[in-house]
Every structure is written in structure tokens, then in C-alpha cells.
Task: inverse folding
């Protein structure tokens, strides 16, 4: 079965602290994974995807096929990083997305 | 950047009536659009994949006669909730596939439509 699991509903950290948002997936094929972010009162937007091996706004994510994980990391959190983060798995010919439940990141001053 | 709009942003209707929600790609053409549903404090659940000029592909458990999808042009997909009931009250979000600033295809999301059925 295709599934994305984000075990933490809320992650609360202080400014400057490291952040790791966990994501595990279940998929029999070759996975294509994404992180989406939704800031307060804004629409969902793409943060990064594993194929591009990007660093966006200081965030990185590495695909670990052995552990079926795609955790999102940032060494020093900023207050403006506070948002809802969704991990998503692309499946099928039309690249439809299966979303995890989301993790709310709260960065405190 | 690629922009997707939805109309209306919110709608209240009586039980038994039908409601149409529009999803438009404003500055790009999208052969594929997606419709999602999001309940409060929950994640996005894919309802269907909408392809221009062909029938939509519905996810398991989604009633195709209840949620009618039409993708008549490369910039417009519509979702009609027929004979709406209170349990259909939700946040409906569409997305459209297009090429982003980073040079690859991605899904661009609309702002969502909040439907309340009385």
C-alpha cells in the first residue's frame, strides 16, 4: 500500500535550534518524494523534492531507501519557518500526490 | 510564477442543492489538474485526477456521480458537488501541473474553497 507517515503533529523549537521533521513512506515502486509547506493563511507550496537534491530556505532532505525515510532538516530554525509541513509521495503516471498528515513547526523567539 | 485560482473561495448552500467550484490556471496551461479534500486539522486527501478532454480518474471511495469533474479546457477544471449534504462540508483544494521556476514540473495549488452545507 502507498502511504506517507509523519509521526509528529507538532514540533516546537526555539529560534536557532536544529530542526528535523520526520517522514516515512511505503511504496513498492521507485519513490519520488516532496516536501510542501503551508504558511499561515497561504496556499500550499512546494518546498523541495528529493530528485533535485536542493537546499531551499536552508532546508534539506535526503531520501534513505533503506529506512524508507525522507526527513526534512534545517540546522538553525528561524521564526519565519513556522508553518505546516507536508511530506508527499508521487505515484502513478499522472504523478498524483499522496500526502502525510502534516507536522506543524512552531519556532519560538 | 504559475498561479492557480479557485472560485468561489467560500460557499454556503442548503442540503440537496448542487455547488460548482472552478479551478483555473491563470498563466499556464495544465493538461492535468487534481482535486483534494481537507477536513479540519487533517491532511489533503486526493479525490480525483482531472485530464483535459477526458474523463476524470477517481480515487477509491470517491463517488463519481456525487462529485462531477469537468476539465473542458487547458486552463479550467470544475468540481460539482451534487445533492450536497452536511457531511460534504469541507475544504476543497485543486492543483494544476505545470513547469515551475526551477525548470521542472510541479503541482501548483489553489487557495481552496470552503463549502458549508446547511
Result:
Amino acid at each position: 500500500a502507498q502511504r506517507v507517515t509523519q509521526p509528529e503533529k507538532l514540533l516546537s523549537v526555539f529560534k536557532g535550534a536544529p530542526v528535523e521533521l520526520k517522514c516515512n513512506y511505503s511504496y513498492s515502486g521507485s519513490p519520488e518524494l516532496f516536501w510542501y509547506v503551508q504558511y499561515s493563511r497561504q496556499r500550499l507550496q512546494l518546498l523541495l523534492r528529493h530528485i533535485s537534491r536542493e537546499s531551499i530556505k536552508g532546508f534539506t532532505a535526503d531520501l534513505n531507501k533503506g529506512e524508507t525515510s525522507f526527513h526534512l532538516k534545517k540546522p538553525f530554525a528561524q521564526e519565519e519557518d513556522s508553518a505546516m509541513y507536508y511530506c508527499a509521495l508521487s505515484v502513478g503516471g499522472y504523478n498524483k500526490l499522496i500526502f502525510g498528515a502534516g507536522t506543524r513547526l512552531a519556532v519560538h523567539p | 510564477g504559475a498561479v492557480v485560482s479557485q472560485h468561489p473561495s467560500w460557499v454556503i448552500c442548503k442540503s440537496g442543492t448542487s455547488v460548482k467550484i472552478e479551478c483555473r490556471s491563470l498563466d499556464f496551461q495544465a493538461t492535468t489538474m487534481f482535486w483534494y479534500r481537507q477536513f479540519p486539522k487533517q491532511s489533503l486527501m486526493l479525490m480525483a485526477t482531472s485530464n483535459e478532454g477526458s474523463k476524470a480518474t477517481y480515487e477509491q471511495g470517491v463517488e463519481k456521480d456525487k462529485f462531477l469533474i469537468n476539465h473542458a479546457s487547458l486552463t479550467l477544471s470544475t468540481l460539482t458537488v451534487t445533492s450536497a449534504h452536511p457531511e460534504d462540508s469541507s475544504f476543497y483544494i485543486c492543483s494544476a501541473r505545470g513547469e515551475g521556476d526551477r525548470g521542472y514540473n510541479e503541482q501548483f495549488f489553489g487557495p481552496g474553497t470552503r463549502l458549508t452545507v446547511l
